């Protein structure tokens, strides 16, 4: 089950088991393939898969959190999506208000819908990534940075 909480709303979406497995696997793959540069720069990378609360950002639990131990501040967050709709839009609006770099990673098929939601609602996303996978048939994945416009 996915529960999104903000100061104004609580939204619940029941995620199917396969969708939850895909979500958590994409988080793992994104950290492995895309976040090495942060670790090399001395940052800590934390994850909150499967609604775990491993590292919070002002009471929220983005899927990937980059923390700078020198400044003791979160510098970057990333949210991984297996679906894109109103539930996710509400969460993105909340994350964008946190005051740090916010990236979004969606399935390739959802890129245009995500762009439209971001643009129509003026959500402060600094980067948009897509992923393509045939999970669980094959555990391969391709990530691509997308243009936001």
Describe it.
The protein is α/β, with parallel strands linked by helices and 149 residues long. It has a single domain, classed as Restriction endonuclease-like alpha-beta roll fold (Roll). 30% of the residues lie in helices and 30% in strands. It contains four helices and eight strands. The strands form two sheets. Strands 3-4-5-6-7-8 form a six-stranded mixed beta sheet. A hairpin with a 4-residue loop joins strand 1 and strand 2. The radius of gyration is 15 Å and the shape is globular. It starts with a strand and ends with a strand.
Terminal Cα span? 32 Å
Taking pLDDT < 50 over at least 5 consecutive residues as the criterion, the unreliable ranges are none
Q: What is the helical fraction, as a range of percent?
A: 25-40%
Name the structural class. alpha/beta
Question: Which strands sit side by side, in order, in the main sheet?
Answer: 3-4-5-6-7-8
The figure for the number of domains is: 1
């Amino acid at each position: 089950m996915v529960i999104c909480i903000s100061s104004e709303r609580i939204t619940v979406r029941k995620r199917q088991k396969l969708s939850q497995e895909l979500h958590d696997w994409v988080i793992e793959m994104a950290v492995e393939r895309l976040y090495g540069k942060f670790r090399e720069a001395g940052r800590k990378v934390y994850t909150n898969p499967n609604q775990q609360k491993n590292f919070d950002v002002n009471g929220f639990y983005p899927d990937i959190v980059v923390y700078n131990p020198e400044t003791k501040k979160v510098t970057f967050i990333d949210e991984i999506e297996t679906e894109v709709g109103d539930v996710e839009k509400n969460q993105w609006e909340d994350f964008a208000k946190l005051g740090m770099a916010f990236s979004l990673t969606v399935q390739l098929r959802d890129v245009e819908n995500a762009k439209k939601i971001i643009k129509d609602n003026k959500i402060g996303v600094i980067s948009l990534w897509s992923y393509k996978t045939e999970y669980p048939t094959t555990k391969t994945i391709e990530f691509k940075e997308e243009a936001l416009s």
